Amino acid sequence: MDMLEELRKLPKAELHLHIEGTLEPELLFSLAKRNNILLPYKNIDEVKDKYLFQDLQSFLDIYYNGTNVLITKQDFYDLTYAYLIKANQDGIRHVEIFFDPQSHVSRGVEFKDVIEGIYDALEEGKKEFGISYFIIMCFLRHLSQENALEVLQMALPYKDKIKAVGLDSSELGHPPSKFTELFNKCRENNFLTVAHAGEEGPASYIWEALNLLQIERIDHGVRCTEDPELLKTIIQKNIPLTVCPLSNVKLKVYQDMKEHNIKKLFDLGVKVTINSDDPAYFGGYLLENYIQCQNELGFTYNDLCDISKNSIEASFLSNSEKIKLINEINNLKQKINI
Ligand code: HPA
Ligand code: ZN
After folding, report:
1. Most buried by CB count within 10 Å: which residue of 105, 131, 180, 276?
2. What is the C-alpha separation between 53 and 145, in angstroms, rounded?
3. Would you call 335 helix, strand, or coil by DSSP?
4. Cα–Cα distance for residue pair 219/239, rounded to 1 Å
5. 247 CB under 6 A from ligand 1?
6. pTM confidence score
7. Ligand having the closest approach to the CA of 141
8. Sequence-separated (6 or more) residues with CB below 8 Å from residue 319
9. Is residue 168 within 6 Å of ligand 1 at its C-beta?
10. Could you identify the atom of ligand 1 that is nearest to the CA of residue 63?
11. Taking a C-beta distance cutoff of 8 angstroms, is the pair 293, 304 a contact?
């Protein structure tokens, strides 16, 4: 069988995707030109040479720098629409995308332009490709809780466009407990909650995200294996992990794809999903992450069917929408196994 084609056909949900992390060097250059912004790179090849990272922080420095070219509503629209074209090519049927409002409003960009540009593109993608979506607003954990609370106020008029809130940026030294009050306020406003935890940070940060922020899913979470009690809780409570394999290798959470623990987590019964995180920076979109898991970690087609089912189950879609997509996966799986 043509594995690439079969994996492409599987209905998949992408649940861990920073829209600012889909800014390809080509679009970076064209937006810089459109907005008269001087880039610290001469050409596209020079940009790609810079995309070699030692850790999360060395990536974030370059990633935030890239966001400087995003200014108008049209910029956010173009960025999001370009991602949806790729998502469609990869067989993605549902996306829950993160955006980082603080990295834009701090530069004088209007919150309205950010959310409306992203929203309009997602609506267009829904019409054109049939890709359903939710938007997740992430807070930058290296900034203060007060700053996050101010941005939450800006977001409230657009509450109906935002399904959930998350927590991202530099993890070490910024534990989830720093944002307990913020997340309480978010839940009072009916936002669902997720948080990055256990990417570079220790297992204790995952406990805090679960117990203090009361999150629905853990973003990354791969360091949960360092605490047997935590691992047991995650399995028993069926808490999903949005794992990003290529990202973890590029940011040196693992030195090599063969060292990644996602297959171990899967075999232990953890509800793991595969995601691309910041695909313009990490060398591949969602399907490439699936393929590398198959090639390097020994996931079979049936395993990857189960992972795509996990992605649907772990999404914020309604039960009836989940059932439709899961039935499609079951039918494809059955055909292959006859
Ligand atoms: N971790 C934390 N913050 C981020 C990431 C990530 O992988 N990508 C974009 N912001
Ligand atoms: Zn992330």
Report:
1. 276
2. 28
3. helix
4. 11
5. yes
6. 0.98
7. 1
8. none
9. yes
10. 9
11. yes
CA distance 323 to 330: 10
Residue 140: both structure tokens together: 């930058």
- Spatial distance between the Cα atoms of 249 and 282, rounded to a whole number of angstroms: 9
Q: What angle do CA 232, 237, 238 make, to 5 degrees?
A: 95
Nearest-atom number in ligand 1 for the CA of 21 is: 9
User: Measured from the CB, is residue 21 less than 6 Å from ligand 1?
Assistant: yes
Pick from 233, 238, 206: which is nearest to 222 by CA? 206
Span 65-105, pLDDT tens digits:
999 999 999 999 999 999 999 999 999 999 999 999 999 99
Given the residues 96, 171, 199, 208, the one annotated as active site = 199
Strand pairing report for 241-243 and 12-18: unpaired
Q: What is the number of the ligand 1 atom nearest to the C-alpha of 18?
A: 9
Token pair 């794809």 in the structure block, residue: 257
CB 238 within 8 A of CB 232: no
The rounded Å distance from CA 279 to ligand 1 centre is 11
Residue 336 CA to residue 147 CA, distance in Å, equals: 52
In Å, how far from its chain's centre is CA 188?
24
Q: How far apart are CA 103 and CA 222, in angstroms?
A: 26
Asked if pLDDT for residue 218 goes beyond 90, the answer is: yes
Whether residue 199 lies in the annotated active site? yes
Domains parsed from the chain with CATH numbers: 3-337 (3.20.20.140)
